[in-house]
Specification:
CATH architecture: 4-Layer Sandwich
Bound molecules: aspartic acid
CATH class: Alpha Beta
Number of strands: 13
CATH superfamily: (Glycosyl)asparaginase
Low-confidence stretches: 169-173
Structural class: alpha+beta
Mean pLDDT: 92
Distance between the termini: 33 Å
Length: 308
Amino acid sequence: MQDQFSIMVHGGAGALGNIKDERVAVRYLESIRVVLEHGREVLGQGATAVEAVEACASLLEDDPLFNAGCGSVLNENGKVEMDAGIMDGRDLAAGAVAAIGNIANPVQLARLIMDGSEHVLLIGEGALHFAAHCGVKLTPDHYFFTPDRIEQLENARLHGRIMLDHDSEGDEQKYGTIGAVAWDRQGNLAAATSTGGIVNKRMGRIGDSPIVGAGVYADNATCAVSATGYGEEFMRTVFAKTIADSIEFRELDACQAVDFGIDYLRRKVNGRGGVICIDRLGRCASGLTTPKMIHGWIEHGGETYCRF
Ligand code: ASP
């Protein structure tokens, strides 16, 4: 087993106009730092990449600052409908849930689907049925709601818009989905992405986060990827897999592959969002088409970096 590991997490992309308020900026960065340090601890102790991304994504889901788990955005009916996906680069195993409520940690349910069912993606009632079968307790509605989210939905309705989490009239765009990618001490890669989706979305709308190859992807032969932004654009460009394929077929490193993917996203669909990626040698890279993305990384066990 090698000494080194790498981990990256994100908490959404966009214009993030609200980070002009320094206290808000500090809260975001502090949260990202705490999650990364947790990742350092578990990976340092020999956790697998899958265990690390599940643990880090769960912490971000628990933080109401982010659009996943507690603090998820609301759909057109004022309801929380969450999506999440997880993927293991060792064997391309994947698990995902979509359009679910009342599950505090959707990424953990996605992992249970990956490990304990013969399926990849379960949605709505079926996913909750599987959760009950696994002994996962339902969490009451009020746990997920925050006053900010209610106000945000009212705003979106007022303007007749569907919006990303960090979106608003003016320059306050942000896409608050969360994600984690990791490279463990055995050189395995994994990725996880979790989200409440976009504000005022139609009931039943599913985004890119639980779709393998769109918002989440991991393959030990290439890289691990987690995306955030307008899901429809990531699905239409099979974004995460496009990045992985650029490594597989063009022999790019993480930075070059992310640049390739971002250029492709922009050219093909004028896509809005960002991405984090670790390649099979543990090199970290990020890219975005929006002005900012909340993210951080530890490369090869080195220093912790947190950025917008
Ligand atoms: N990608 C997510 C979705 O479309 C939203 C986000 O990243 O904030 O559901």
